[in-house]
Design brief:
Blueprint lengths: L3 E5 L6 H14 L4 E8 L15 H26 L9 E6 L2 H9 L4 E4 L8 H12 L5 E3 L11 E6 L3 H13 L5 E8 L10 H5 L4 E7 L5 H11 L4 E5 L13 H9 L4 E4 L1
Parallel strand pairs: 1-2, 1-4, 2-3, 4-5, 6-7, 6-9, 7-8, 9-10
Antiparallel strand pairs: 5-10
Helix pairs in contact: 1-2, 3-4, 7-8
Amino acid sequence: MSEVVLALLTRPEAAPAVLAAAAHLAELAGGARIEALVCRTPPLATILVTEDVLTSEQEREIRAQENARAAALHEIFADWAARQPGPPPPRWLNEEGAAAALVKHWGERADYIVASPPPAHATRPEYDTLHAALFDCARPVLLMPPHASATFGKTIAVAWRDDKFTLHAVMAALRIAPKSADIHVLMGQRDGVPRPQIPDVLREHGVPVTRHELAVEPAPFGAQLLAKAHEVNADLLVMGAFVHNAWRNLLFGGVTRYMLAHADLPVLMRH
């Protein structure tokens, strides 16, 4: 039985990179099946609580805009799918509904999810899409910046933190990492704290690694992680995904938020 890679398509300008990354991830997974999902926002969901009514004209206009976006994405998908070797052939999913519910429904059925980081002017449905992928599906999520290389896995940087989220991300990466991959473990180091050790999961799997210790302060740790990943020529960064629980629908954790805004290489995250 083949694995499933779910590609979340939101904006036409980001779709080619997401599909290319999904294809490479499917190859690393041994020939996984790819499903591409477009979530069309229902007109009623666009109305603010301060607004009283959705007119028929507004509903037609919103639905037309969403249909046009889906059509543009399908054109990109169809052109890409025609060039895939297969089998199995990629599957197109185009549904209207709440993004979070749709992503959870299809994401729980996938083995990996591929998405694009939200732009600075992202809509609420785009943020809901990403939140659901990262925190509601219990699946590894590959974040693919629009201009990053879709050929990844040769040199992997692991942002290690001793918790279950990072462990989940590392296990997901080990499932697809080529045996010849170079793996660099990036670990935070605070003054007066014992030196961090190579993670047991990597030693138990017999994975040769190179360790790097980064000062947790004073620079933002996300910036240090990204800089070190580039210094070792990593083509993939692996890390846990975090969210501020009290503000689950609004705020990502600090390093997670930094990577969503600044990462320019593929990032495999898992909550």
